[in-house]
Amino acid sequence: MISTHDERKHESLEAKLPENTDVIFVGAGPIGLATAIGLKSLDPHLSIVMAERYEEYQRKHNLIMDPTHLEMFMKATGTEHIKILSDLLADLKKNPRIRTNKLEEALKKVAKQKDVEIIQHKVSKQDLEHLSESKEHSLIVGADGTHSAVSENLFPEDNQIKHEFDFVLQLRYDIVNEEKPQPLKSMAFFQQMARDGMIANEYVGKTENKVTPVTMQMMISKEEYKLLEQYTSKKPLKFDHKNIPKLPKRLSEFVGRYLVKTLQQKSVQLSDIKISVNEAPATHAKKLVHKTSTGAPALLVGDAALGLSYFKGLNAGFESLATLFTLTGPSLESGLKDNKEAFNNALLKYQQWFLNSFAPRKVKEVESYSTWRINAAWNLMRTLRFTKLSSRVEHDNDPKYLIADYLNRQATAAAGKKINWDPYPHRPYNPEISLWTLDFIPYEYSVKKTIKIFTDYFTPYKAFSFQFKRDLRQPLADLALMGIGVVKFFGGIIALQPKFIGDGTLSFIRGALSLVTLGWLIKPFTKIIATAVIGPHKIEENDGLQLLVKKGRLLLDSKENDFQILVQHPKNKDSLVLQETKEAKLSVENITRVKHICFDINRKFNNSLKKGQLTAVSEIKEIEQFNIMREGSVKSDFESYFSLFAKKPEINPSQDNRVTASVRKKTR
User: Fold this and answer.
1) CA-CA distance, 145 to 31, in Å (whole number)?
2) Bigger pLDDT: 243 or 444?
3) How many helices and strands in the chain, by DSSP H and E?
4) Which listed residue, of 50, 91, 142, 518, carries a Cα 20 to 30 Å from 437's Cα?
């Protein structure tokens, strides 16, 4: 049996409409609401009903809104005195970034103040057929987006023209508990784009109640778009506490590195991040105005009339409404019901202006933006990527493993608590150091790398294929390093920064020494010989991994843990001894610290496997012990995992029969 609420939900649109409804809207997004506000402001006697599919506005991403277009609309409709709109205009003049749902909320309040009725209803083809045959309505407005049902059903066939330009991936998240979060360093972001041959931008929205929306938008290929086209802004791809969304390899690496930087620097819950894709075309209708069978016109507005990418669609919507109401204003102010012919003629003039002048100009703007602002920059990044790939020496950690490490660590944190995450705890220097780094590099790092030029001759290969190719590319890397050194040196002189002068000098010397010693020519042979004599360098022998194992074991053996408990002496019942027990549990703090070290070992192990480095550790055994460790709370769980990577078995002295002096004193 269907309830009264369900009966109402399944009613036709016509049955839900109040009597004597003059204007019916299909869709109640920002431009639809603005159109209804304009009509009602110029003709307060109109009865307007808007049918909206969703109870809440579905899109919450950032837009850049030009306040001049809103101001033009307000002047054309005589709504300058409405406080909500004037406040909105003032805010946009200070900061043009706004969330789409915030804009929609403001316009909805104004519409309701003017007695515009909004009902939740998914308009069907049958609904539109009935509306077009009704003589009661003066106007039907299609404000239902690019894939407009009104355009499809009430207008001639194939009413939409599409100009294909670009494809976009958007990554959205909120920064919480920060008053004024800063965007990522522009130079670091630029270098990241150049490394991957990508073009992207980061839009930081307006902070409200210590919550700031951020959108990272990047250009993708049509092939990549097709693989991800099911993930729209209404149905995005999300992270959960265990899984990382699968993206095409090139996108995965760029997005992964972006997330690694973001999660390090900002208060963001990974589970709140949403990824979606969309086309960035220009679409427009062949006709904006069409008479229904009863003679009442149907009008298309917003994206149904003209859909533009790169924040241009919303602005064009308000700009075109200003002209619409300038032309129709006189007939509306005299009363639409009494001036239908004048109103219809004004609509035809609007359509002529829109199709012959406005739409072509706006499509040209998108084409120009795509050509000169997007694709020119993208081609530059691709060129830089080719240069960097040909000269790149260091290998970036796979971001997939870094994010998995973050997920593991987040799982150990209290709900809603931000974790202090260092994805490279074994490194003594800034983890962002790479060949093309323009930031200051510590002198110790440069000296260490300079010494390594000579010691590397006698060390075996870790991963032959990867490192052999790296050695052959070394001359290009040396030239790049010398160039960076020159830039830093003269930049330091200009900026009066002695540390950059020193940094630039060391970078130039390092590159020059590597180049003149012909390491790229000699080193492959000496390293092959060293590998043959000593044997290949296994994963468990890597210095960074061994350092982590050592740190973990020191934590297990520290006095801070409670793996040791006091028990009765087996021979002297009046005495107590400090005995190690496998059942004793670690404190929550120490469990977290030890697990974080194990997570990093797991990341390094998997990343080294990907490079092709050999290991005596069974991958199946590592996965098995890692899962035991992840749920573990006793010493044996962690020690078993560390033991997988020990160079040699280490025997810790048993404390079973040891009586400490302090315990003896206490028991006497």
Assistant:
1) 10
2) 444
3) 26, 16
4) 518
**pLDDT, the chain, mean:** 81
- With vertex at residue 528, the alpha carbon angle to CA 523 and CA 534, rounded to the nearest 5 degrees, is 120
Going by the DSSP 8-state scheme, the letter that residue 496 receives in this structure is T
Q: How many residues does the chain have?
A: 668
**Cα–Cα dist 143/314, whole Å:** 12
Report the distance separating Cα 509 and Cα 587, nearest Å.
50
d(CA 39, CA 502): 68
- Encoded tokens for 542: 């890597």
d(CA 559, CA 588): 15
Rounded to whole angstroms, how far apart are CA atoms 605 and 115?
Answer: 65
- Could you tell me which residues come within 8 angstroms of residue 220 by beta carbon, excluding any fewer than 6 positions away? 167, 168, 169, 228, 251, 277
What value, to the nearest 5°, has the Cα angle with vertex 524 and ends 523 and 530?
85
Measured between alpha carbons, how far is residue 142 from residues 152, 342, 395 in Å?
Answer: 10, 21, 53
Question: CA-to-CA distance for 202 and 285, rounded, in angstroms?
Answer: 32
What percent of the chain is modeled with pLDDT above 90?
Answer: 31
Q: How many Å apart are CA 648 and CA 493, to the nearest integer?
A: 51
pLDDT tens digit sequence for 177-192: 766 666 666 666 766 6
Q: Backbone phi, then psi, for 434, in 5-degree steps?
A: -150, 180
pLDDT value at position 551? 86
SS3 583: coil
**Phi and psi angles of residue 585, each rounded to the nearest 5 degrees, phi first:** -105, 155
Please compute Rg for the chain using Cα positions: 33
Q: pLDDT tens for residues 78-99?
A: 999 999 999 999 999 998 888 8
Residue 68 pLDDT exceeds 60: yes
Spell out the residues 6+ positions from residue 468 whose beta carbon is closer than 8 angstroms to its own.
Answer: 461, 524
The answer to whether 373 and 459 have CB atoms below 8 angstroms apart is: no
Q: What strand order describes the sheet that includes 289-291?
A: 117-120, 48-52, 23-26, 139-142, 297-300, 289-291
3-state secondary structure of 244: coil
> For 113-127, how does the pLDDT look when each residue is reduced to its tens digit (9 = 90+)?
999 999 999 899 999
pLDDT tops 50 at residue 649: no
